[in-house]
Task: structure prediction
Amino acid sequence: MQVTLANPRGFCAGVNMAIECLDEAIRIFGSGIYVYHEIVHNRHVVDRFTDQGVTFVDHVEEVPEGSILLFSAHGVSPEIRQVAAGRRLQTIDATCPLVTKVHMEALRFARDGYHIVLIGHEGHDEVVGTMGEAPSSITLVETPEEVDALPFSPDQQIAFLTQTTLSVDEAQAIIGRLEQRYPDIASPPKEDICYATTNRQDAVRQLAETADVVIVLGSQNSSNSLRLAELGNEQTGRAYLVDSVSELPEGWDEGVQHVIVTAGASAPEDVVADCLQHLKTHHNATINEVTISEEHVHFPLPRELRHLAASRGQTPPETGWKPASGGA
Ligand code: SF4
Result:
């Protein structure tokens, strides 16, 4: 079996920052920390922190007054921040800066009198947070057909934004339809789909042409992992999205000679290493890593982590940021 290991894959700068932020919070304050929603959408990551005593909640009301609450990488709406303030929670915001950028764009467009069409997936944490910035000025669409059903006229002030982790191709199809219906539609100054989502999809698109199967390591609720699996399926007709290699279904390898292995932006590299080891041991696989693009993106740890540490007489994080590990 021949295995092509895609690079970039796995952790992005936003996920690295959120995980390091929670690691540092545990080091400074101990394990009695609460996190609103999953810190990142990956079962292994969430299980590791749960084992360390972190409590993940879906409602801020579940957090005891005065506790430390961390907001996950996907961001939250202003309403959630208000509820947290009302409970006197000490909050640390681990929202990815590229998600915050979309929040800021939503606020700016709404303030300037635009109605915003947000391209995204209903119910995703990031979409809920972004829509919460200007609920009466944002309409969500998921498909080109939903664009056709929009009630706005072409002479209205309309803008579009997108979720950061969409399929680049699907988003482009929806944007194309929007531009047909609303020729003057305003767009974000810079692409909202983030560099990590784009690079991981590009790698699969380029590498999977000659492959029989694509294995995507990631969780079922991870948007960017799902998009990688969809793309792999389009390219090869067979793609598997699994949290770990042990979840591959019986017979997945029938007639398979060439496999692409990649990982979503929230999937840890040790899960990839386990998968490669399994393929070597059980399928005599030769592994060839192919780099499609280099990543050098780093995000600083949230300032409030440092302030909270100082207010409690604890040693603050040393560097303030750590390099994201490229394709790790
Ligand atoms: S996938 Fe993109 S937007 Fe999401 S955390 Fe990573 S860098 Fe940020």
DSSP finds eleven helices and twelve strands in the chain. The longest strand covers residues 2-7.
